[in-house]
Amino acid sequence: MAQEGLPNLADGVIPMLSESERLPLSRFSQVAAVVCLGYATLPFLHLQLESPTLALPGFLFVLPLTSSSLAAIWVTLLVISGMDWILQEREERLALRYRLVHWPLPALVAWALSVPLGTLQVSPQWWLIFGLGSVLLFAVMAAEYVVAGQIGAGQFWAYVTLTAVSFALFLILAVTLRAAGVRLYLQWLVLVPAIVLIVLRNLYLRMVERWSWEWAAVVGVLILQISTGLHYLPLKPLSYGLILTGFAYGLTSLAGALEEGRPWRSAWLEPLIMMLLLGFLAFIFGR
């Protein structure tokens, strides 16, 4: 009797996913194994490469080219190809133009994770980043697989996961760049494309498969200006990242609310609350 009651209890607590929303575990596990193997090789790659430079009147731009950066590109391409291979398992047999939508965010997570794994020495900290980062990456890939098809039971949680992971990733990037003392123009090259991709993906899911290029461009320009202003303030890396992420989330949320046609009186409430909350955390951690 107890065994017969267990499935009913599980059905009542855990929303049942449709057949098309269930992960193809065989392909997913193979992709996960190859990607983890790629990450494991990063600390052992040491090549002498010449960094390309661009000399302009009064400026010298140096783009750092290292073995870890090349390896980061390689692992990112592995994730993109793996994500596409997993998506081909869906019952809908999605065309390439529909599968392309689900590449950018896993690629961004994979690239961001490969940077510290390729620069740090193997240590308990390296293993912590490896473990938590891999879980984060595979959670994003699983969520992208769920939201790729028709609206179902898992869509809401997949959307929440993608949104949370996107802005957590942006926070990590901002804090890492600030802590490393990266030059301002190199921060632009990382943060602006990252937030543009995040805004596009977030609004695409929120607007039900409609691209909002105008809002992505507006938020990207505003984040560029805000990051420039914050760059010259005496802020700790975590405070800098929290403030910038607060603005990024607030602007994205406001854009989504306005696109949904919500009145201005209520559209600004959630963005303002999140910006104040993250600003308060920045003040607490910056003391």
TrEMBL record:
Transmembrane residue ranges: 59-80, 100-120, 126-147, 156-179, 185-203, 215-233, 239-258, 267-286
Keywords per UniProt: Membrane, Transmembrane, Transmembrane helix
Name of the protein in its database record: Uncharacterized protein
Phylogenetic lineage: Bacteria, Bacillati, Chloroflexota, Anaerolineae, Anaerolineales
